């Protein structure tokens, strides 16, 4: 067993875990944060995206011990004071989800995508969003409402 300490959604946590435990497993099974989904186990679908020290990470192929001392934000920690994050609200308002399985990873990736675009002065348009979300797969939608949601969320952020 290996001890790992990190801040998850603003709370310090320390757990003794197997060194080979994935970050997604740590979040879901050790901490009960089931908003981080696992769809492919190969980093291709993006359902497992969380933020580590402010950047997107696909948690299904990253070891939890790699993030000892890091700050992790999951979908459960994205909103503040009981309110939805502007990107979550935009997905709700623009019908950017159907079954919801990919939605948490889509939202987490979108928040990071918008943050980086704003830092670099990049215009957030349909082309930018579609290209930026290539690592996230939705099996239900045609992506039109997801793109609309990301653009609306970007305006609200």
Description:
- With 157 residues, the protein is α+β, with helices and mostly antiparallel strands.
- The protein has 5 helices and 5 strands.
- The protein has a 5-stranded mixed β-sheet, with helices on both faces.
- α2 runs antiparallel to α5 (144-156).
- It starts with a strand and ends with a helix.
Radius of gyration (Å) = 15 Å
Overall SS class: alpha+beta
Broad CATH class of the largest domain: Alpha Beta
How many H/I helices? 5
- Would you report the number of β strands? 5
Here the CATH topology of the largest domain equals Ubiquitin-like (UB roll)
Low-confidence stretches: none
CATH level-two architecture of the largest domain: Roll
Give the helices and strands as they follow along the chain: EEHEEEHHHH
Oligomeric nature of the chains: single chain
Overall shape: globular
Strand order of the largest sheet: 2-1-5-3-4
Roughly what fraction of the amino acids lie in strands? 15-25%
**Major β-sheet annotation:** 5 strands, mixed
**How many domains make up the coordinates?**
2
The CATH homologous superfamily name of the largest domain equals Beta-grasp domain
The end-to-end span amounts to 41 Å
> What is the mean pLDDT?
95
What is the helical fraction, as a range of percent?
Answer: 25-40%
